[in-house]
Design a protein that fits this description.
With about 575 residues, the chain is an alpha/beta fold. It is built from 15 helices and 22 strands. The strands form 5 sheets. A 6-stranded parallel β-sheet has the order 11-10-12-13-9-14. A 6-stranded parallel β-sheet has the order 17-22-21-18-20-19, covered by helices on one side. Helix 6 runs parallel beside helix 7 and helix 9 packs across helix 10. The chain is globular, with a radius of gyration of 28 Å. The N and C termini lie far apart (about 70 Å). About 0% of the residues have low confidence.
């Protein structure tokens, strides 16, 4: 920011109420026009402002279209800032008028926007007296100009706001609704759009849109502000399932890919999630700058790249992967493998990482940028739970103090699914208060999206459950749901996964499982996944067989409840849970 822009931003922050939305230096729409400030108010309307730190003596010649300035480097030619602001505002208005829900549908105003819009200029270094003592008013309409003495810290809120709204030529339109405000944001800022399906998460948001649906989804204001304000340093986002953590990670990765010099690293624990993230990154054509790996695959690649011996045996041997991690830790400590390899590291599902893994990864961030983003939800922590009871971010080198954000609103699940899943994880969802250096347990808050009630079906045998599931999947497909929007999640392969596998094969339903799962548009198959492998994913229809057979002698009841909660919250629209009638 220039000094004048900074002062004006401070006035907006202190002189406007909380129902104003303000953006600074954000490109608009597909044309990527770049106004200095955008101000939106549900009753007042939309205002586009250009800020110019010019002094009166610097202005040599100014017309309605151009200005010549005398600067230390010589004469400079610029556009008239008022004309510049007018063109930006007109372009935004033209774009928004194409949305039927943002214009009058009949009457003398038919086709015109439901809200007023205008534009203006701020001159932080020219007083009103100086302005009026020149002929600037002939080319800069006086009521569309805010001068130095009208934006001082001592100015009254009402006086400051009056200067803003005197720029409007019309008023009295009524209040914009929240969905209308979101539609305005959806059009102005394609990068905050949320697609209806997760497959489209990182697809190009600037592609032309055909017929607009009735409901357009965008990041909520907290998500947008968080995504835009992520800067250098360590950042931790605690978010409940379905709160948009991966959406923010994708936004961050796309931004960093534009400005980075060194590679960017995205890590997660789950192989299937890594596949999906890698597919998204390749679609965005930033794969040359952004590397996506599971933690263990990354460890192996580090050892082989720097010619450090791998452990004996293979991944089937007990302790093999632990040995691999320990070898990498020792190699980094002994300077056999360099630290600071990445300009930024982004960790999805950070709650699945052991403390020593996080400590290792922190060392891989370039000290120049110190850019680390960790996404965390303690409720979904399904690995190594006992080891992380007394975990603190400080103990692994993550500087979380003053850099944490909490996202509590669940947008993925319908209210019915979220309430149903919560019945199986009441103890897990009891909120815990912690300081910023620890991981809190968060109670998810429903976004209020409604849907069908989850089905809890009791059948005598696993074979009957499998037959019921295949009938439900076929019926959904006949109703128009693609196979790839369905998933069957199971806890154990034998007998549950094996029985379902055989039932799908016998019913002629296309499905993918384990390494055959891909996320290309060509693969239209039902996904057959373990609870663990489903983490980070979502599907409109999810079926969970043998819910009463989930107990595992090697895990605690709490971990089983966590796993079942994770599985249930993968469903975005329809959830079917089956157990035995016996």
């Amino acid at each position: 920011m220039t000094a004048g822009e900074r002062r004006f931003a401070q006035r907006l922050e202190t002189k406007l109420e909380d129902d104003y939305l303000c953006w600074y230096d954000i490109p608009i729409g597909q044309s990527m026009r770049h106004p200095d400030f955008i101000v939106l108010h549900p009753k007042r309307g939309l205002l586009i402002l250009e800020i110019k730190d010019w002094k009166r003596d610097s202005i040599q010649v100014i017309t309605k279209t151009d200005v010549t300035l005398l600067m230390p480097e010589g004469l400079i030619h610029k556009r008239n800032p008022l004309e510049q602001a007018r063109q930006y505002a007109q372009a935004v208005a033209d774009m928004l008028q194409r949305d039927p829900q943002l214009v009058f549908s009949n009457g003398r105003m038919q086709g015109q926007l439901l809200f007023p819009w205008t534009y203006g200029v701020v001159l932080p270094n020219i007083s009103r007296k100086q302005f009026e003592s020149t002929d600037l008013g002939e080319v800069l309409e006086p009521r569309r100009v805010i001068c130095q003495d009208e934006m001082v810290e001592s100015v009254e809120m009402e006086v400051f706001q009056k200067r803003l709204w005197d720029m409007f030529t019309v008023s009295g339109y009524g209040n914009l609704s929240l969905p209308q405000m979101d539609r305005i944001r959806w059009h102005m800022f394609p990068e905050i759009r949320i697609p209806e399906k997760q497959d489209e998460l990182l697809n190009s948001a600037t592609e032309p849109v055909g017929e607009l649906p009735d409901i357009l989804q965008v990041m909520d204001l907290q998500q947008e502000q968080l995504a835009r304000s992520l800067g250098e340093g360590h950042r931790v986002i605690h978010g409940v399932a379905g709160s948009g953590k991966t959406l923010i990670l994708g936004y961050r990765a796309k931004y960093l890919a534009k400005v980075c010099a060194k590679p960017i690293l995205i890590l997660c624990y789950n192989r299937i999630l890594a596949k999906r993230l890698e597919h998204w990154i390749q679609q965005k054509e930033i794969g040359s700058k952004v590397n996506v790996h599971t933690f263990h695959a990354w460890c192996r690649r580090q050892l082989t790249t720097y010619h450090v011996d791998l452990p004996e045996g293979n991944g089937e041997r007990d302790g093999y992967w632990d040995d691999m991690v320990n070898r990498l830790i020792r190699a980094v400590d002994n300077k056999l493998i360099p630290s600071g390899q990445y300009e930024a590291v982004l960790i999805d599902e950070g709650h699945d990482f052991r403390p020593e893994w996080l400590k290792l990864v922190v060392q891989m961030v370039d000290a120049r940028t110190n850019s680390l983003l960790v996404l965390y939800d303690d409720v979904q922590s399904i690995y190594h739970t006992k080891e992380k009871r007394h975990f603190s971010f400080k103990s692994v080198g993550i500087q979380a103090q003053g850099r944490t954000t909490i996202l509590k609103i669940n947008y993925r699940n319908t209210q019915e699914i979220l309430q149903f899943a919560g019945q199986f994880a009441r103890q897990l969802l009891t909120p815990t208060e912690t300081d910023e250096d620890s991981a809190p347990r968060l109670m998810p808050v429903s976004a209020g999206r409604q849907g069908p009630k989850p089905l809890l079906i009791k059948l005598p045998s696993l074979q009957e459950q499998a037959r019921y599931i295949t009938k439900q999947l076929k019926a959904a497909h006949q109703d128009g749901m693609p196979w790839k929007e369905m998933a069957i999640l199971y806890r154990h392969w034998d007998p549950v996964g094996k029985t379902i596998n055989n039932a799908l094969t016998g019913a002629g339903i296309p499905f993918s499982w384990k390494d055959t799962i891909q996320f290309s548009e060509k693969q239209n198959t039902v996904r057959l996944l373990t609870f663990h492998s489903s983490k980070g994913l979502e599907f409109p229809l999810v079926a969970i067989p043998a819910a009463n057979m989930q107990a595992d002698a090697d895990t605690s009841n709490e971990e089983e409840a966590c796993l079942l909660y994770v599985a249930m919250t993968r469903a975005t629209r329809k959830l079917i849970v089956l157990d035995s009638a016996n």
